[in-house]
């Protein structure tokens, strides 16, 4: 059985909830990624911030990116996957929640991220097509 732990990218960096959007954007740029988990001072996952969130919810909404924090963009509980969950569960979770990236947790500890590309490499081609279609139609 292939698990989320098998296909994830380990060693994920977080944007601290109290960091400004400017700091989060710099981190995204330096790491060459499109999203970062948002972690609170208790080291628990608070949400995920994407480059699109920054453009739409901050810049497009006329907010000051230096005065807005990453934590302000954390909406409710983040959609996650357990490290030992089967890749079929990863697929189903991405599809049902219409997300392209999932934080991977082991207990309450963030241990990695699974992206659409990670899932695509591990699933048979028909399932990948189903996932791409589901995410594109949402």
How would you describe the overall organization of this protein?
The protein has 138 residues and is an alpha/beta fold. The protein has one domain: Roll (CBS-domain), CATH 3.10.580.10. It is built from six helices and seven strands; from the N terminus they run αββαββαβαββαα. The longest helix has 13 residues. InterPro entries: CBS_dom, CBS_dom_sf, Diverse_CBS-Domain. Keywords: CBS domain. It comes from Streptomyces melanogenes.
Distance between the termini: 29 Å
CATH superfamily: CBS-domain
Order of helices and strands: HEEHEEHEHEEHH
Overall CATH class? Alpha Beta
Provide the CATH topology.
CBS-domain
Identify the quaternary structure here.
single chain
Brief overview:
This is CBS domain-containing protein. This protein is an alpha/beta fold.
Descriptors:
single chain; 138 residues; alpha/beta; CBS-domain; 4-stranded mixed beta sheet; 3-stranded mixed beta sheet; 6 helices; globular
